[in-house]
Design a protein that fits this description.
This protein has 354 residues and is α+β, with helices and mostly antiparallel strands. Helix content is 18%, strand content 31%. It is built from eight helices and 22 strands.
Length: 354
């Protein structure tokens, strides 16, 4: 059973590789603690942070993960990361657009029609240009995916943090600043828009800004930690699990919440949980007895969230669409059937109970 389930999940893992946020190495997704700010970094956010410039681009985490505008977010000194489970992507929030509102009357924000000099490039999407050291930095550190399109030309602006005047340029997700007083490698720096946004809007709850003591607190407010289905005596702890180079980690003593692709309770997306059968009295051995209408409970941060089974089906191992993102909050349970043969996959789906 274990070998066959791993083969199935390998297929699912290969499918997930077509989505950038779904490609994951388990080790890279494990929680990390930053003593500098007293906050954590883990799972999809850690993957995105590390693959797109890390500390130099985003800065240290300054909150824990919490739900904002219906999706998990985490603030960093220079950015906000967002988990869009409905499409399976981690994205950097448009803090540059927010910060640019205060400077929108500057001539630098007026649309352009073409590049002004050789080596400068024009973006018709935003009608602005990019050149010089800022272009070099933009191209070397992730470009469009990391920073977005330019929203302005270069101009002089007084920095809110130190009161000095710097050459700056605004982008959808950040603000570039030229600091000639720094060594050459650091003369182009990013504005601390994450701190600036939190200070101005106070959008993060107090508990999310409070320092934690260890890495295990990562995503604590959103991670499901236990699943129960009272009618069929299903009761299992849940652990976060990923995959390494396409091979999924399959725990033998708990259900697995697959963070490379899964949504989280209270937010839109597909909350994917997988578990073995054939282990007497644990994990999903009782799942074949489920019926439509059964209650399903997920424990999150000590509280229970209730769901109701709406769909039960059996699929073949190649029908990996059951792992795909969903537009609405959905719980998808996966195990192997029939017990002893394990040639098919039992899929039990549930929606939040009113």
């Amino acid at each position: 059973m274990l070998r066959r389930l791993r083969i199935y999940l390998l297929i699912v893992g290969l499918l997930a590789l077509t989505v950038s946020a779904g490609s994951a190495e388990t080790a890279a997704g494990q929680p990390r603690y930053f003593t500098e700010t007293g906050h954590t970094l883990a799972y999809n956010f850690r993957l995105f942070w590390e693959r797109n410039g890390g500390l130099a681009i985003f800065g240290y985490p300054i909150t824990e993960v919490f739900v904002e505008a219906g999706r998990p977010v985490q603030y960093f000194e220079r950015a906000r990361l967002e988990w869009h489970a409905t499409i399976g992507w981690t994205l950097a929030g448009h803090l540059g657009r927010w910060a640019a509102e205060d400077s929108a009357d500057q001539p630098a924000f007026k649309p352009r029609s073409e590049a002004a000099y050789p080596g400068q490039i024009f973006f018709p999407e935003s009608k602005h240009t990019l050149g010089g050291l800022f272009r070099q930095y933009w191209e070397r550190n992730g470009g469009l995916q990391t920073f977005g399109y330019p929203l302005s030309e270069e101009f002089l602006e007084r920095n809110q943090q130190d009161g000095q005047i710097y050459t700056v340029q605004y982008f959808e997700r950040t603000r570039f600043e030229y600091h000639p007083e720094l060594p050459a490698a650091y003369q182009v720096s990013l504005g601390h828009l994450g701190r600036q946004y939190l200070d101005a809007t106070n959008t993060a709850p107090e508990w999310a800004k409070r320092k934690v003591n260890n890495a295990e607190a990562a995503w604590q407010a959103l991670r499901p930690t236990r699943i129960t289905m009272p009618r069929i005596d299903l009761d299992s702890p849940i652990i976060e699990a990923g995959f390494s180079l396409g091979t999924w980690d399959v725990p033998t003593d708990a259900a697995a919440h697959y963070w490379p692709v899964a949504g989280f309770p209270t937010t839109a997306g597909n909350i994917v949980l997988a578990g073995h059968v054939g282990y007497r009295g644990i994990i999903f051995s009782q799942l074949p007895n489920a019926v439509v209408g059964d209650s399903l409970l997920l424990t999150v941060d000590g509280a229970e969230r209730r769901y109701q089974v709406t769909e039960i089906r059996t699929v073949t191992p190649d029908q990996t669409w059951v792992m795909d993102p969903t537009a609405e909050e959905t719980v998808t349970l996966i195990t192997c059937v029939p017990i002893g043969v394990y040639s098919h996959r039992l899929i039990v789906r549930a929606k939040p109970q009113p």
